[in-house]
Amino acid sequence: MRILIIEDDLEAAAYAVKGLRESGHVVDHAADGDEGLTMALAGSYDVMIVDRMLPRRDGLALVEMVRTEGLTTPVLFLSALGEVDDRIKGLRAGGDDYLTKPYAFAELLARIDALVRRANPDQVRTRLQVADLEVDLLARKVTRAGEEIDLQPREFRLLEYMMKHAGQVVTRTMLLENVWEYHFDPQTNVIDVHISRLRSKIDKNYKQPLLHTVRGAGYSLRAAD
Known about the structure:
Layout: E1 2-6, H1 10-22, E2 26-30, H2 33-42, E3 47-50, H3 59-68, E4 75-79, H4 84-92, E5 97-100, H5 105-119, E6 127-130, E7 133-136, E8 141-144, E9 147-149, H6 153-164, H7 172-178, H8 190-202, E10 211-214, E11 218-221
Parallel strand pairs: 1-2, 1-3, 3-4, 4-5
Antiparallel strand pairs: 6-7, 7-8, 8-9, 10-11
């Protein structure tokens, strides 16, 4: 999913961005309230994570403006201001949840998932399956024929994208933009390397191949060739 983090503490922001990207999310960062407001209104995000104390425009004012503009994106306040009155102000300003710093990253992930489930109860899929290959997006667990497969974060993100587009031809450009967040061709074999690694893990020891190369077009994840 696409997440916008609005946080002026660059160290704290870098920690959250790194963790969320390693968990398979596409993450943008704004360092002040005005920049955050502009990005929120211009982008299409699944969740916004907003600090309370921001330069140029504080978090409460930012979220109030976002709601005034009709944006319904779920907002999680992430702040060192943790008193009851602070949390109430955040929720009344238009926030959907409130997490106090310092926080456990696992809890942040769980709260993000919960916000998205509530916002899109009919759209969020937490389990993906193609033939006997299954992916649990919440537990970040991959199994084939009941056997667990260990994937690196980028491999998991690649598989998740392929699973969500099962049966379709996925082009290299689609993978670069949605898995690597590149909007240009880096002129490397990064996709080939990761496809090869992923294929060796999900296909090598099984009779039926699922990950297919479509010559001259891209790749496809499907049960039958």
